[in-house]
Amino acid sequence: MKKEIIHSEKIPKPVGPYSQGIKVGNLVFTAGTGPFDLKTGQLILGDVRQQTRRVLENIKAILEGAGTELDDVVKTTIFLTDIKDGAAMNEVYREYFAKDPPVRSTVQVAGLWGGMAVEIEAMAVLGGP
After folding, report:
1. C-alpha angle with apex 84: 62 to 31, nearest 5 degrees?
2. Contact 125, 74 (CB under 8 A)
3. Dihedral sign, CA of 23, 24, 27, 30?
4. Domain count for the chain
5. CATH code: domain of residue 34
6. What is the pTM of this model?
7. 103: closest CA among 58, 73, 80?
8. Burial letters for 111-126: b for 16+ Cβ neighbours within 10 Å, e otherwise?
9. For the segment 40-83, what is each residue's pLDDT rounded down to a tens digit?
10. Structural domain containing residue 100
11. Which residues contact 82 (CB under 8 A, 6 or more apart)?
């Protein structure tokens, strides 16, 4: 199987040597995605709710670029710089995955690029789980 690089013009270009997403067969993997503003390309820092919303909108754009959607996500990994932000992050996460949420792992990390509070990566199945 050959991999296909996914790039969405709806979100800023990656800040390093990586792809926004990759499609292999009927699977789509997103990179760890941060809260980058669509217009300016700058990080949105501060409130973890606002950051989570921006991250999930960016993931949504990557998935759409691959021909899938958030409903097709089967696994997420969430990286938080403070696990105490988990409840606030979950408030927003629940809005995006209200029905049949994907499996997930949530971990606290020592730090994230640029001072982000949250970063999320996702795996989706084309055509739904």
Report:
1. 20
2. yes
3. negative
4. 1
5. 3.30.1330.40
6. 0.94
7. 73
8. ebeeebbbbbbbbbee
9. 889 999 899 999 999 999 999 999 999 999 999 999 999 999 99
10. 3-125
11. 108, 117
